[in-house]
Please model this.
Amino acid sequence: MSRSLNRRVFLASSTAVASGVALRTASAAQASTTPRVPDIQVREALEDPTEATLTEAVVLMRRGKLTSTTLTEAYLDRIERYDGTYQAYAEVTADAALAAARKADRGQGARGVLRGIPLCVKDNYFTRGVPTRCNSSIFEDFVPDEDATAVARLKAAGAIVLGKGQMGPLATTRATKPNGTVTTVNAWTPGDPGVDPGGSSTGPACSVAGRMAASSIGTQTGGSIVLPSNQQNLTGLKPTMGRVSIHGVIPLSFTRDHSGPLARDAMDAALMLQVMAGPDAKDPRTLGLPAVPDLVRAATPVLSRGGAVRMRRATRIGVPSDFLAAQKELRTALLNQLDAIPGVVLVDIAYPADWTLLTGTFNAARLAERTEPFRHWLREDPAKFGVSLLSWLQGLMLSGDEWITAQRAKNHLLREVLDGLMNRCDVLLQTGPVPFDILGLPEIAFPIGFDAGGVPVGAILGGQPYEEDRLLEVAAAYQAVTDWHTRRPTDPVPAAARLRAAIARPRLSAEEVATSSA
Model:
């Protein structure tokens, strides 16, 4: 499908979503391609199976060199040893995971591309028979009787749910207790809970970075896939609005909730998204969209005849004028490495004059949207919102006319991005999740190095509607010439881990929660 038609479909779909209606039905052509894992070269000296990427684990199992039981036991062993410090899991389903792994090794059960692969699922996805608390007392007794569509598709492809990833309360901030005390830490700084682990998909990110799951799925309403990925040296892919069904995900904002993978590299993210994506009659946002491209092919690096990495397609990468305002050394290195890949053309991009206003002030419209599903509980028992109550009350204070003005501003911003910035490039480097996050456009996060304190630093790349494949092509080419994505954090010392778990952790104030809230 052409880019111009994709844009028209995206604009129509965005209007329909904002109106809360569905305009179309699914077509057979819209379905996702059945993925096939390429026979990649597995890194040598992988004595610990938890070191393997998801794709490497699939290949090792296919070659008979690894079993699902061995891999699952290895992850559960790490959870037992280290999750007292990480606090990445809200619920561990060890017995069910081991039973599923043994079944997979006997050749029974689902026979898809992820057969026998253990995953972490954010705790706002429905999981049949497993508590889904969304880190909120509102859902403290909730046990779904069905799987969310994304979870059902992963399980149908053979994946095993190791447990539920801890998250920010109702997906608004980093993971805390109701009183604001920090729980999940950044896997790269387990001894310093004060270091930000990213957004609300903190637990899924930490589980993958800490090698306690092969991959994970999270949700993004205000940066919670790309930011935890950047903070914990992962590759996170937030797809275009509607690419993945959010049926069975506890809602936050109807116009901004997204589902996507937090993975170890571009290929793992591609495999996960290929399985999750496609139309779902239970989510009108997914219907009538362009077909899901071959994401696994897009994430497979291309070599020239001389063996050098090159782009699969000539790609113009937009570089905004403020891109080097932070992390200058690492971002300069990123630009130099991208510029050296044949097929890449860097293009200077200038923001329109009203950029700060459109991407800042009007972004407050999200507060009213996310408050709407929870008005019942705000009236019945505000104490259930704990330290985050202030941010929820902010949503109630936004008037109807202000919300309408914000929607007009959002539409104006969308036209400025599609008809202005993205007319000069195929993908655009960003300095944060906004504005692609606001607009429902796809974006990918990937590692580019570490700061002076040893905390990972990443880049975010935004794309055209439904062009997740283009984002993966760039990330895969970059990862083929760098090794940042292969770095792993040092394990906490088990004895010290227990001690650290007992150390008082920072406590966020109501003002801090409101400021950092998605």
